[in-house]
Amino acid sequence: MTKNTKTVLILLLLVVVIAVVPLFLKSGAEFGGADGAASEMIEEIQPGYETWADPIMEPASGEIESLLFCLQAGLGAGVFGFVMGRLVERKKHEPKRT
Predict the structure, then answer these.
(1) Which residues of 3-37 are buried (b: 16+ CB within 10 A; e: fewer)?
(2) How confident is the model at residue 98, as a pLDDT?
(3) Which residues cross the membrane (predicted)?
(4) How far is Cα 11 from Cα 14, in angstroms, rounded to an integer?
(5) Quick one: which of 45, 35, 26 has its CA closest to 69?
(6) Model confidence pLDDT, tens digit, residues 20-61
(7) Which of left, alpha, beta for 94 (phi over 0: left; psi -120 to 50: alpha)?
(8) Nearest to 87, CA basis, from 79, 75, 98, 96
(9) Are 82 and 76 in contact (CB under 8 A)?
């Protein structure tokens, strides 16, 4: 094994450890979103608060809501990556000015 291969394997192992260890250290923890935290805080500040806006579409289940969120994140990442790639590659294909 070359030195670079060993370094890559050690770094991959470190990444896996960093990703897996917190899952076991926080067993039984609930991970709530910002919406839930905000609604709890509003309820503490002003009990009985009635919202003045309703959602346009209410997903049928939590899985569909997660799917829509992932789809939105994927599309956003794709657009961001496309734009960044175009900006970087544009410099390579521009005629050189003298």
Answers:
(1) eeeeeeeeeeeeeeeeeeeeeeeeeeeeeeeeeee
(2) 66
(3) 7-25, 66-88
(4) 5
(5) 35
(6) 888 788 777 777 778 788 888 998 999 888 888 888 888 888
(7) beta
(8) 79
(9) no
d(CA 39, CA 43): 6
Q: Is the pLDDT of residue 19 over 70?
A: yes
Alpha helices in the chain (DSSP H): 3-25, 34-45, 62-93
Cα–Cα distance, 53 to 55 (Å, whole number): 7
User: Six-digit token pair at 89?
Assistant: 């590659």
When pLDDT is averaged across residues 86-96 and rounded to a whole number, the result is: 84
